[in-house]
Amino acid sequence: MATKQTGKKIDARERARLARTRVDQVRAERDNKIEATLAEFFTAGDEREALIVQLAALENTMGNTVTSLFDLGESASRVADLTALPPKEVKRIRALATATPAAPALPQTSTS
């Protein structure tokens, strides 16, 4: 009778081990899916940051060209018509232009 009881304990432990293994496997698969999903998220975030930098550079170029149109004597409404942009957008883009730095002044030499 003792061997029958021992056999049941071994059987119970084996079933417990198999159940734990199944749970661990499901957990590992879930962890892998979470990791893959997060990797996709962070990759997209990195690409987004690169696009934001590109967009800023392009809008700066657009702002400089809009400023050039104003420098050429075009009015705000004419620039809006020429660029097919609403006047508010022309104003916004113009504000994004970076001023080109002036040439540095030459040092003064004293003549005494």
Secondary structure elements and their pairing?
Elements: H1 2-71, H2 76-83, H3 87-95
Give the tags:
112 residues
Short description:
By secondary structure, the chain is mainly alpha-helical. It has helices at 2-71, 76-83, 87-95.
Give an account of the 3D structure.
- With 112 residues, this protein is mainly alpha-helical.
- The protein has one domain (2-95).
- Helices cover 78% and strands 0% of the residues.
- The protein is built from three helices and no strands.
- The radius of gyration is 35 Å and the shape is rod-shaped.
- Summed up, the domain count is 1
Count the E strands.
0
Strand composition percent: under 5%
Q: Tally the helices.
A: 3
Class from secondary-structure proportions: mainly alpha
**Residue runs with pLDDT of under 50 for 5 or more positions:** none
Query: What sequence of helices (H) and strands (E) makes up the elements?
Result: HHH
What is the assembly state of the chains in this entry? Answer: single chain
User: Averaging pLDDT over every residue, what do you get?
Assistant: 88
Largest sheet: none
Radius of gyration: 35 Å
* Helicity range: over 70%
Terminal CA distance? 121 Å
Which outline best applies?
rod-shaped
